[in-house]
Amino acid sequence: MRVVGDNMEPVIVSLREALSLAEQAGLDLVEISPQANPPVCKIMDYQKFIYEQKRKQKEIKAKSAKVVIKEIRLGPQTDEHDFEFKSNHAIRFLKEGCKVKVDVFFKGRSIVYKDQGELILLKFAKAVEEYGKPEQMPKLEGKRMIMILNPVKK
């Protein structure tokens, strides 16, 4: 097998010789590439290697963006003042970089006003278009009509 290490030249030796080289160095013999001809092993501190891999994974996870979805609920006959109040909340959420899920909830027989629900969602998208754009247009799911807004990057 081919043995490589930090402070040594690559050499081709038997398994026993490779193990004795690792033991002399006080490190572990780790198989890196078993498919190679001959297989490649590295002399290294295995615990330190695993620790550094975990640390790198943790850094990558910390740097990844966490998507937060805020929800705003409206009714098919939402009043103008309530509409403005909720659109201001949505603008604040979009400025913070959160996605906003706006839904119109139809209670009882108000489901017959689907067109009003769609109009109110489109009006909502128009009110916050400077700060967010629709990811998906309004769609009906059961008794809810849902629209998702993404923040606009400036």
Report on the structure:
This protein is α/β, with parallel strands linked by helices. It folds into two domains: 2-54, Translation initiation factor 3 (IF-3), N-terminal domain (Ubiquitin-like (UB roll)); 69-151, Translation initiation factor 3 (IF-3), C-terminal domain (Translation Initiation Factor IF3, 2-Layer Sandwich). The chain has helices at 15-25, 46-63, 80-95, 114-127; strands spanning 2-5, 8-12, 28-33, 40-44, 69-74, 99-105, 132-141, 144-151. The strands form two sheets. It has a four-stranded mixed β-sheet with strand order 2-1-4-3. Strands 5-6-8-7 form a four-stranded mixed β-sheet, with helices on one face. A hairpin with a 6-residue loop joins strand 3 and strand 4. The longest helix has 18 residues, at 46-63. The protein is rod-shaped and about 80 Å long. The mean pLDDT is 88.
